[in-house]
Design brief:
Low-confidence stretches: 1-10
Radius of gyration: 25 Å
Shape: elongated
Order of helices and strands: EEHEEEEEEEEEEEE
Strand content: 35-45%
Number of helices: 1
Structural class: mainly beta
Strand order of the largest sheet: 8-11-5-4-14
Length: about 170
């Protein structure tokens, strides 16, 4: 038998007072609460490291200063170390990408910055899937936990546009 751990986000009035197992065993409200709290504690305190994903551009990121005093990067792809697609969010102040703050890894993007930035700060979600076996052979738990992971992408160099006009 397996158990399903659930949590209803309400005022608490929808919690069951009794659950019957397949074999007819009655789980009282106290047993349900104690069991649920023990499993929640195990899940919420799970700090097991899951594959360290990193992100890097397919070529150096070079910002060029525009006539308006802003900086625009060359077109680059930000790839994940495991080759999977992730939604990345820019958290650096004053930097946008393709007129927004989010993009998918593996897609070609151009960054626009208000300032001469040395790096681009990103965040993405890390989904942890865990399987717990309890002391009893009858109860197993599969859980997911989503956490934000911070990443820094270095900017290689900055260039200024050459606006000189040569008159002959």
């Amino acid at each position: 038998m397996s158990s399903l751990l659930y949590r209803i986000v309400t005022d608490g009035t929808h919690e069951p007072s009794e659950i019957k197992g397949i074999d007819g065993t009655i789980f009282t409200e106290e047993k349900i609460s104690a069991y649920r709290n023990a499993l929640l504690n195990a899940i919420q305190n799970d700090d097991t490291e899951r594959g360290n994903i990193s992100f890097s551009p397919d070529e150096d990121i070079v910002f060029t200063e525009t006539d308006e005093g802003k900086f625009i990067s060359n077109a680059v792809k930000i790839n994940s170390s495991n080759g999977e697609e992730y939604k990345l969010k820019i958290v650096s102040q004053g930097i946008t990408v393709n007129d927004g703050d989010t993009f998918l890894s593996g897609t070609t993007v151009q960054f626009l910055s208000d300032t001469d930035s040395a790096e681009i700060d990103l965040t993405t979600n890390d989904v942890k899937i865990s399987f717990y076996k309890t002391d009893s052979a009858h109860h197993n738990v599969l859980s997911t936990k989503i956490t934000d992971i911070d990443h820094k992408i270095p900017v290689s160099k900055k260039e200024t546009q050459d606006n000189e006009i040569t008159i002959k």
